[in-house]
Write a structure and sequence with these properties.
homodimer, alpha+beta, Nucleoside Triphosphate Pyrophosphohydrolase, seven-stranded mixed sheet, three-stranded antiparallel sheet, 10 strands, 30% helix, 27% strand, DNA-binding, WH_DNA-bd_sf (chains A, B)
DNA sequence: ACAAAAGTGTTTTCTCTACACCCATGA
DNA sequence: TCATGGGTGTAGAGAAAACACTTTTGT
């Protein structure tokens, strides 16, 4: 096989920053690293890119392999390419952030794999430059969520407006006015109101909503701007 | 040297989508490829990542080497990682978009290097997946420019409001109302009005402005929203 | 009946849009 | 003096923010 001469080849990895939301706090999925160096230290879910797959495919495969999760929202957001970021040899890492419904998968994750959820502000020390990746991914998540309705990926199929509001408040680290929030969300036309109520957190109960998938697909670019508010 | 065993290594390249603006049209800087395969075909400015440098450094180096340009706005935006995107062997490409003041550098580029500016809608066929990269980069540029004041990078030190407006219109492919545009731009506090006027395009002449560098640095996140308008 | 959460209405404030208008100047 | 592009002013529509108020229901 012909090659480009005299050029150095590198390992290429993918690392996934997996976000989840348990109804109260934004969480991060971490695993104990399975190979040297830094074996058994906490790490992002990652792996090397294999010969036949694209980086996107590698990220999906690695997620699936480490957690059993499939069909997850994945978005490539940054390459970490400093020469010395891995002490063994040069490895470039393509970082992805992933959004999953924590309830749907948490049992499975804990039973079959050695992954664990951490509140994003109480995570353990991470290997290499993974802390930087998390910081960058969170920033990117805020940025993206401010403009596009991606946070629904973090919620169950059925969810209530108060739940949604808590999620927005958590991600953006601010209080939001309920009245304005409800009006804004409803005006997007992204939600379909269900008959059923969630009575777990109040006497009155809050109506469940589900995503209007059609609109969600077509209006993905839509600008939300559910910010500024209260105080 | 210790290595991770049994993993495939790849070549890693950087490719720069270089945007320029001549006062009328958005342009793209292309070079004739200097190596096989596809030698002498039009290509983005790119090169392989060397052992001691980060991808960001590689992009800056490659830009400098191919054009003489230094200190240019460069932003990594996407990895192109399909296994077969290069026919010779697997090469991952980290794509960057660059914004430069076309006037400052155009003479130099044409004289010393074999790079050429093309209006973005009249570019020649490009090698590999470079057309896709250009499309993606342009989309990213629009997206980013809609929110952040990066377009100033495309203008000379001194520029007029009408020039700025044409640039916004060109990038976003829409007409903008002059009154509203001026008001909005001025309200950002990013511009400093100069004494001098540009009389080249009207009898009355338009005042030159320069960037308030301090504010530009600190308010980089600032949301512009100079859109919707006219008709 | 009352506490507590869900959800609605309403006022005030601000911003955006459209467009009319004035300005400066060379031909 | 008039044509041309530069630049300002302003009324009306619409959206955002603040917050008061109503609804529901378990205890």
């Amino acid at each position: 096989m012909i090659e480009y001469s005299n050029q150095t080849h590198y390992l290429v990895a993918v690392d996934c920053i997996v976000f989840g939301f348990d109804g109260e706090r934004l969480k991060l999925l971490l695993v104990k690293r399975g190979l040297e160096p830094e074996i058994d230290k906490w790490s992002l879910i990652g792996g090397f890119v294999s010969a036949g797959e694209s980086t996107d495919e590698a990220a999906a495969r690695v997620l699936k392999k480490n957690t059993g999760l499939d069909g997850i929202y994945l978005e490539q957001f940054q390459v970490y390419g400093k020469p010395d970021r891995d002490p063994i040899e040069r490895v470039l890492s393509v970082a992805y952030f992933a959004l999953i419904d924590i309830h749907k998968y948490s049992a499975q994750i804990n039973a079959d794999y050695h992954a664990e959820w951490f509140p994003i502000n109480e995570k353990p020390a991470l290997i290499f430059d993974h802390e930087t990746m998390v910081t960058d991914a969170w920033k990117k998540l805020r940025y993206k969520a401010a403009l596009h309705p991606i946070l629904f990926e973090l919620l169950p199929k059925k969810f209530t407006l108060p739940q949604l509001q808590v999620l927005f408040e958590e991600v953006n680290d601010m209080k939001i006015d309920t009245g304005n929030f409800n009006r804004k969300i409803k005006s997007t036309g992204l939600l379909i109101k269900l008959e059923e109520k969630d009575k777990s957190s109040s006497k009155k109960g809050a109506f469940y909503f589900k995503l209007n998938q059609k609109r969600y697909q077509s209006d993905f670019h839509l600008v939300l701007n559910v910010f500024r508010s209260s105080k």
